[in-house]
Structure formats: structure tokens, C-alpha cells
């Protein structure tokens, strides 16, 4: 027995670094909110021994739209934003030379193989860009030009208003797109729902004004078949703030033009916790073990066959006391609300509210939820 435990621990220790390493090597760079695509022949960004992101020189210069000069004799790189805006980096030196004087770095530009790598943050800031880093299960680095008009940006997730943070938390288990006006800002939330492992992500890569609407271009990623990922439930989402306040939104998957993004019907946003769920039927109220008197108010959202959610009120003995149905939606999330009168003269104090959708094939119960309730004495 002891030998089996030791072997299991050794296997776990071998497995964990592989998972962490996969996440550590996932570096995604966004320039003015558009993800930088780096051709495979240019090399890949990496984290150096000083915990700084090094990026292939050609990749960052082309991404920013600047030109580069290389002096092989002095091993000096000159990156020019304009005739009067240029910086110099010497391979192996810890300084960036700018028109306003040198900037001291805590790392150095290096040459690996035939590729020149420069410290992303220092070079970008020396050229006048803002740089923001966030950990989202991967390294997310945003480079923005303060003079460029941004179509959207991502708020700091560590300092979200409580109402917005709650909204994200209430919504994360469901695949949906939502928007919310709060304190003068227009928030847009894309959630992918609960996933069985890590390796999933969703990100807005572009926001573009079209004739009569605002197009939100979204990229979703799934783990590869042999990719090592964390073995835990995850809830990928992206939250952005868009500057345009009036135009209606249209969501487009950059890899699947036919994809349908589920929206909410009959309710503006998911503004309360989900008390019980079976995947495609989600109940806000009543809560499990709630004490009830007189009637039961059933509220929730569902996406089921013909948009019909059936319900039964069942006594502790198994006797069905009443049944009925309410209407939600099919294809999108439809809000439903139903008032159910508790029969008079019940001697049982325990009831069960059962909700389900009928199968289109054989009429069997699907997505069943059973909520225990207590009658108030």
C-alpha cells in the first residue's frame, strides 16, 4: 500500500510542472486591443531569468508599425517611431537610449540563434506606449498608444465595482453575451460556461463600427487533444468596456462565422445568483430548502425544446400535488416567472419542486431539477 502511495506522489510531482509550464509559456500580446500574431519563423516571446518578457525584435517592430536599423559593428538596434522619435538598444547592455535620456532596465536585450530579442515592457514604454500586464491563466500583455482612440479596453479585474464583479460571478456558469451600463461605462461580457479542464479561453480581438451596428469579434480557444492542462473546472470569459454607447452589438466568431452567441430574452442581465441548475434550465428562485407559505414564485432562465419548462409539485410521500408549464426560449436564454399556489390542508411539511423539459423524441424528462422546500408552520 505504501509503495503505491509513493508511486502516486512521484507521478503527481512529475505531472504538475508540465501543467504549470504550459501556462507559463502561454504569452499573448495585444496592441491597441488587437492580438499580435507572430509568424512561426520569427521566434516566440519568452520570460527571461529576470521575469521580463523578451520578444523577437522584428515581431514587435512590425506589430507597432515602426522601422528598425541594425548596426552589426556596435550591436545596436535603432527603432524609429518617426524622425524625431527613436530609441536605441545595445545587445547585452541594460539601457535604452531615448531622446529624453537613458532608461535603465533590469534585464538586457539578447541574441538567441539568429534572432534578436528585446525586453517588451521597456522598449514599448520608451517609445511612448502604455503597457499593462494581467495574469488570466496565461500572460496577457496589452500595449496601447495613448494617442490612439481605443474602441474598447479591459478593466482592471482586481478593482471592479462590486455590482460588475457580482454580475460576472453570477454569469460565468452559462454561455452567453450580455451588456450593462454602469457609472457611464458600457460593459460587455462574454462567458463560455463551465468547462471540464483548463486550456479554454475566450477573448474579444476587435471592436469595429459597421453600418448600423457595432461588431464584436471574438476568438475562442479549446485545448488540443494531447495538450497538458489543469484538471479542474474552469469558467472562461472576457469582460471589456467599449467607448461607443449607442450602437447595437453583433457578435462574430473569427473562426466560425456561423456560430450563434446566446443572448438573454425577457431579462436585461443575470443580476442574481443561480440557485439550482441542470445545464439548460437555471433557477433563481426558490432556493433549495427555502421555507415557503401560501405560494411559490418560480423564476429562472432556460433554453430548451420548444421553450417549454414543465414543473411538478410533489409531496414527501411521492404524490404529485399539481403540475403545469411555463415558457422560456429555445436557442437563447429565455426568462420565465410563474406563481404556483400551494394546495390547502397539506399535512406534510416537506415538498419537492421538480422542473424539466420534455424530450422531443419520447417525451421523457430532460434537464431535471428537484428543489426541496419546507412549508412554513
Overview of the structural elements:
- The protein is mainly beta and 377 residues long.
- Helices cover 13% and strands 45% of the residues.
- It has a five-stranded antiparallel sheet with strand order 5-6-7-8-9, covered by helices on one side. A five-stranded mixed sheet has the order 21-28-25-23-22, with no helix packed on it. A five-stranded mixed sheet has the order 24-30-29-26-27, with no helix packed on it.
- Strand 8 (95-98) and strand 9 form a beta hairpin.
- The radius of gyration is 27 Å and the shape is elongated.
- Mean pLDDT is 88; it is low at 1-22.
Summarize the structure.
About 15% of the residues lie in helices and about 45% in strands.
The number of distinct β-strands equals 30
Dominant shape: elongated
Taking all Cα atoms into account, the compactness measure Rg is 27 Å
Low-confidence stretches: 1-22
The termini sit apart by 54 Å
**What is the helix content?**
10-25%
Output the strand order for the largest sheet. 5-6-7-8-9
- Note the main sheet: 5 strands, antiparallel
Average pLDDT:
88
| Category from helices, strands and their pairing | mainly beta
Q: Give the amount of beta strand, in percent.
A: 35-45%
Number of helices: 4
